[in-house]
């Protein structure tokens, strides 16, 4: 009589899958890569998660709920927009350059280019990035309502600037730019926001 298949820790298997997708991206990750990382046969992966795409979407959700939640925490957790933006950028550098972990942002790097068969994944991730941009703009809009920023501040352009910087930090980190260099750039990046705050205080 054959023994029952060894039970596996679904949460740990998902974390392992997340790290593979984070490091290699969606298309470049093969089922054999996932089998090796998760420690279970492909049939059990399909049984537990449904498909490679479903597994990837669940892995992204895990990333955004844990490591990738830093931006939401920063934007909601600081009393001023200036401090929130600075914390968001600094926490991004810390995460994106963490030793022994995949470099950069999973949502930025996992599927910027895909074959037509995976356009759905590419657009889904693009939607996540657009949502992040919007969350930054909304935090700046809040700063205008509170009087931290002048009423005529172009919050859309300013928000686009910091979203572009946030996503660019991911690319720089994956390219091996050192943490110290990335952190050194942040005070210069905040100059536009500092100028707007100063204007509101005059």
Automatic annotation (TrEMBL):
First and last residue of the signal peptide: none
Listed InterPro entries: DNA-bd_HTH_TetR-type_CS, Homeodomain-like_sf, HTH_TetR, Tet_transcr_reg_TetR-rel_C_sf, TetR_C
Keyword Cell membrane annotated: no
Domain HTH tetR-type: 7-67
Keyword field: DNA-binding, Transcription, Transcription regulation
Record flagged with keyword Flavoprotein: no
DNA-binding region: 30-49
Matches recorded under Gene3D superfamilies: Homeodomain-like, Tetracycline Repressor, domain 2
Molecular function (Gene Ontology), one example: DNA binding
Stated name of the protein: TetR/AcrR family transcriptional regulator
Taxon lineage: Bacteria, Pseudomonadati, Pseudomonadota, Gammaproteobacteria, Pseudomonadales
């Amino acid at each position: 009589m054959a023994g029952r298949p060894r039970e596996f820790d679904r949460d740990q298997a998902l974390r392992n899958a997340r790290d593979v997708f984070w490091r290699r991206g969606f298309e470049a990750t093969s089922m054999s890569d996932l089998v090796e990382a998760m420690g279970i046969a492909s049939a059990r992966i399909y049984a537990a998660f449904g498909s490679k795409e479903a597994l990837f979407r669940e892995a992204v959700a895990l990333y955004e709920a844990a490591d990738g939640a830093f931006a939401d925490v920063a934007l909601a957790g600081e009393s001023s927009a200036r401090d929130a933006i600075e914390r968001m950028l600094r926490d991004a550098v810390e995460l994106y350059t963490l030793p022994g972990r995949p470099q950069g942002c999973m949502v930025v790097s996992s599927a910027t280019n895909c074959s037509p068969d995976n356009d759905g994944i590419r657009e889904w991730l693009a939607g996540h990035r657009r949502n992040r941009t919007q969350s930054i703009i909304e935090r700046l809009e809040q700063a205008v309502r509170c009087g931290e920023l002048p009423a005529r501040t172009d919050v859309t352009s300013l928000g686009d600037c910091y979203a572009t910087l946030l996503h660019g930090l991911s690319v720089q980190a994956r390219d091996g730019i050192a943490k110290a260099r990335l952190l050194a750039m942040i005070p210069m990046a905040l100059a536009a926001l500092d100028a707007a705050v100063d204007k509101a205080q005059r």
